[in-house]
TrEMBL record:
Its cofactor is heme. Its main location: endoplasmic reticulum. Belongs to the cytochrome P450 family. InterPro entries: CYP11_CYP27_families (IPR050479), Cyt_P450 (IPR001128), Cyt_P450_CS (IPR017972), Cyt_P450_E_grp-IV (IPR002403), Cyt_P450_sf (IPR036396). This is Cytochrome P450. Pfam families: p450. GO terms for molecular function: heme binding; iron ion binding; monooxygenase activity; oxidoreductase activity, acting on paired donors, with incorporation or reduction of molecular oxygen. Keywords: Heme, Iron, Metal-binding, Monooxygenase, Oxidoreductase.
Amino acid sequence: MEGMYETFIGPPFWKIFKTAGYKKLESSHQIIYRIMEKHLKNVTRMHCQSPEKLIARQPFMYTLFTNEQLTDDDKVMLSMEIFLGGIDTTATTTALTLCYLAQNELVQEKARKDATTKDMSYIRACVKETLRLSPTAGANSRFLARDTKFDDYLIPKGTLLLAFSSVTSCDKKYFKNAQSYYPDRWLRANNEEFHKFASLPFGYGPRMCPGKRLAENEIAILLKKILQSYKLELEADLNVGMVYRMNRIPDRPINIKFINTNY
């Protein structure tokens, strides 16, 4: 993401010669492609030899490989898109959730108890609260379909508008104790009222992130496995902010102690 940010944020000198940012982007893509190529060959071999094993181990890839409407190139492209599209966002959200849990012992204990349940409703609420306080996406953008009046401003049709969820989701106008990490607000039993469009970490409508459910499940399952075996502590008090690198990422390293609880 840093390579992409450095390449696209400035003048397009990379079209003339390979800039430092372009070299970083090119190198990372080559490494990722080599890793993906190796795994895709293994998946293809398993699909041909033992499809029942593939459906048991990797049901998503089985569904992708058995889709007759997709060409082989489509399958490779979609596999890489899912992998690339979820690297930084999923890792960032997971790291920040672990950070918030390490900072909130009572919340962490509730999440650990929830790790023994099937639906993991509280763990999922923790992820939603992380995405409210520290969303990885910068903004949702749309071109206005018609002339629209906002307060005293008339914005003409065709204007590109950006709604920064990172601003509205932390606004006390929309959430009680907006700056506090409080996953309970997302539980149905809590019945807290807030504007449903104030926090849109995955966007909304036809243009929303297609990997939303996959990402939420990946993070929830990983958190469940971690909490079943480890207690989380921060090595030092952290006040983690976020910076833009195409998406939003932590502005500093997050060092967490994993204390084994299974002795």
